Amino acid sequence: MAEIHLQKATTRDIPTLISIEKKLVGIKTVSTITTEKEWLDEFNNHNEVIYLIFKNDVVVGDASYEKKPDGSAYLSGLVIDPQFQRQGIGRKTMEIIMEELKDTKIIKLVTHPENTAAVNLYLSFGFVIKSQIENYFGDNEPRIEMVKEK
Q1: What CATH number is associated with residue 141?
Q2: Which among 33, 65, 91, 117 is placed 20 to 30 Å from 125, CA to CA?
Q3: pLDDT tens-digit profile of 104-124?
Q4: Please, what is the Cα angle at 80 between 98 and 20, to 5 degrees?
């Protein structure tokens, strides 16, 4: 069985993060971060936790969340390299992150309504669909807000 683990990313990992995200450009159900400036903005948010996802010793994705001042959390990203999708990596990543956030009362995220694999994954972790927001990221695509409350 392959070992899935997360490693906190640093600014030195920006080229790797961009490389992963660029593999998903053009897929309308995914919002990507593909410039150094965007990643630097993420790293400059001191409440943001950014991970590289490893399968054995190979980087296969990235994940991030932000702890908000009100005690809630926002899952800001979960991206798996297309060649490694449908192998349970996203599920294992969510298990790790949800364990880290086990004491968080409210966790929010947004995803594309047509990204059924993601929607189903989040539903399986107890998230519920709260609303649909048109043009959420300015890309003319809708997103659904999902929330998990304890």
Answers
A1: 3.40.630.30
A2: 33
A3: 999 999 999 998 999 999 999
A4: 125
